[in-house]
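hey so i finally got around to running the thing on that chain from the lab meeting. sorry it took forever, my laptop kept dying and i had to restart like 3 times. anyway pasting the input first so we r on the same page abt which one it is
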Amino acid sequence: MSALAIWTAIDVAALIAGLAVYLFIVGSQLKGVADDLESAAELVWQIKRDAEAIAPGLTSINTTGRVVAGALPLLYGMGEGIVNGATFVHADHESEGVAKPAMGTRRSRLMEAVGVDID
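ok and heres what got predicted. didnt touch it at all, straight out
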C-alpha cells in the first residue's frame, strides 16, 4: 500500500469518527428537547381539561356581562341626575381672583431677572 492510500484511510476514519461524535451530541440535545416538549404537552392537556370545566360557566358570565353593559347607559343617566341635583351652587358674588397672603407678595429679584412682574 502506498502512503497516499494509508492517509486517505486515516482521513476517512477521522471524518467518520467526527461525524459520529457530532451525531451523538445532536442526538442528546434533541432527546432533551423531546423531553421538554413531552412535559409541555402534558401541561397543555391539563390546561385543556381545566378549561373544559370552566366552559359551561362562561355562558352565564357572558350573559351577566351583557346585562350589565346594557344597563350602563341607564345607570350613567341616573348618576348624572343625582350629581346635577346635588351640585353645590356658590353665592352670587364673584371671587376676586387668586388669594394672596395677608403680608403681600414676597419681593424677589429672581422673578424680575426672568421678566415676571409680580405687582
